[in-house]
Design goal:
Length: 214
């Protein structure tokens, strides 16, 4: 299966993708995580991506699509996209590449969360610098402040989780990413899930939609 998780910033794509990948063995592909790793390593791609990400803008389509294609060349397992595609041009690029490589998108799952919850989720998000586990200081606190329960890594706030950058990310989402809802509705593979419940409730809804037993 190849699945796309679609949703606004903070809708819970990363949280759900980690659960789904652990349950199914699908390869979790988060373009945001890949860009952040490139930024930390100060690669030319990372330095270029940072100039867009730090302002809440999307990285240009050609850079993103080529990065995904080169990262996934030779991967045989099912793909679970989180944060990709994010524009009509990226969706078309993915369709062409899937056609060339004999794959198809089986389902697009849209995590539907009201705006007021999104801001709260992003402002209080903390992420483990070592294993990537996602926390929230209001809804999913670590046992020990600032320390990951799983691996003991330091919990950090993402540079783009400042309120002014969040606002621009939401604007980019509305303008460039939301049109994907009708793109995938037309393709007959679109499913909306209520993303405003607890992570385990969201996971149950997504899993049952995909026919995965929990
Ligand atoms: P990216 O990293 O993909 O960020 P995003 O889409 O803005 O989404 P987030 O990661 O912020 O949120 P999420 O939906 O994963 O939510 P999470 O699970 O963490 O991209 C960052 C930037 O990179 C972009 O702005 C862009 O510049 C660039 N980029 C990336 N991909 C690109 C592309 N394809 N093209 C061009 N540019 C690209 O949850 C958020 C918080 O809520 C956490 O604290 C979590 O604990 C909490 N939470 C989650 N689920 C629940 C729940 N059910 N109940 C309560 N709390 C919850
Ligand atoms: Mg994410």
């Amino acid at each position: 299966m190849n699945i796309i998780l679609l949703g606004a910033p903070g809708s819970g794509k990363g949280t759900e993708a980690k659960r789904l990948a652990a349950a199914t063995g699908m390869k979790h592909v988060s373009t945001g995580d890949i860009f952040r790793a490139e930024i930390s390593a100060r690669t030319p791609l990372g330095i270029e991506a940072e100039s867009y990400i730090s302002k809440g803008n999307l990285v240009p389509d050609s850079i993103t699509v080529n990065m995904v294609k080169s990262r996934l060349a030779g991967v045989e397992s099912g793909l679970l996209f989180d944060g990709f595609p994010r524009s009509i041009a990226q969706a078309e690029g993915l369709d062409v590449w899937f056609k060339e490589t004999g794959r198809k998108t089986d389902a697009v799952i849209f995590l539907d969360v009201p705006d007021e919850k999104i801001i709260m989720r992003l402002v209080y998000r903390r992420t483990c610098s070592k294993c990537g586990k996602i926390y929230n200081l209001k809804t999913l606190k670590p046992k020990k402040e600032g320390i990951c329960d799983e691996c003991g890594g330091e919990l950090l706030q993402r540079a783009d989780d400042r309120e002014d950058v969040i606002r621009q990310r939401l604007e980019s989402y509305r303008k460039l990413t939301e049109p994907l809802v009708s793109y995938y509705k037309k393709a007959g593979i679109f499913h909306a899930v209520d993303g405003s419940g607890k992570p385990e409730e969201v996971d149950l809804a997504v899993s049952s939609l995909l026919g995965i037993n929990k």
